[in-house]
Description:
Protein name: DUF5007 domain-containing protein
Organism: Chitinophaga caseinilytica
Pfam families: DUF5007
Number of domains: 3
Number of strands: 24
Largest sheet: 7 strands, mixed
Structural class: mainly beta
Helix content: 10-25%
InterPro entries: DUF5007
Amino acid sequence: MQKKNTWDLGRLYAAAALFATLLGTTGCYKDLLPDEQDHLSNNMNYTTENFVAVLGKTNVFINVFNADYSTQPLTFTLENIRSGDKQPAPILRQQIDTRQWKTWYSGFEKTIDEIMSKTFVTKRPILDIRENSGEIIFWNVDSNTVAYGKYFFDVRVKNKAGERVFSNLTLDVRRPHPYEPYTIDDITGIQKPLASGGLVKAHDARNVRDYMQRLLPKDSIDVFFVKTGTAKNTVSVRFFNPDSTVIPLTVFDMQRWDSLYYYSPQAATRVKFGFNQRFDTDSTIVTWDIPSPFPVLTDVSGGLDMAQVGFDFKRVNFGRQEAGYVMVRFAIQEPGEWTVAVKFRQKPKFEDD
């Protein structure tokens, strides 16, 4: 028994000696390794050199800088901001009130006040840059503050390995888009050709028929956006026949008005359409209170977030029940009271046959 214990003790001493040897060897190899050096890649670049910004909204340009394998963190600064005639444009560095998020928007907020409580106001320059990502931001201003046209700027990028300047990046400031899809050319200020976006159509339509039983395609349904006031932020929806007579909302007998939703790609969830829904006395207008902008994340989503909603009905078509809908897709960028007017080019039939 004593002999076994002596043998085990010998094994323990041998293992300890081996560990000490390995530790010493590792230390020697570590001493042989070169110190880690910071790196500023020659291949880093802005993926675009032209930033198109629309007045009247916040323009956020994300994922626009490729750092390649440069050592992080990088530091970005704006320099040499100038107008189209290459004169200094200090107005773009003017500090203004900006509304930013202090916590995430979930899409489940129950009031506009709850949405606004998730934001805060802070001063930032009109043309801004994220210090460590290089993302460009052009904050919400109007044409009285910044004239539309082209501006130029440089960006200095640096880390401990050095620095590099990206020169002559372009900021292309264009006329506001009060709503989307917008029918006015934001460069010329002239209405686009009717066949090229000068007239908004229904996003989709299904089983909408005229009095001759012909299916009415979505291209035969026009959508107009009319600003009717500025007292509050609202959106109303109305439907019209070709002769401009009003279609009562009661024809949409399958519509669940209290549970109208749209999908927000940014929030990755279905969002309730507006707040405090109400009808006028003859049920031809339905109105909601809305945040501005609407949808909430439309101005920071690059146009991905838009309210896409369908208005559902059913009718009996010679003994067969048909379910149909008219769908619109839009965003409201400018504060105020807005009406979305949906007008059919052929008179639709909602009565049973």
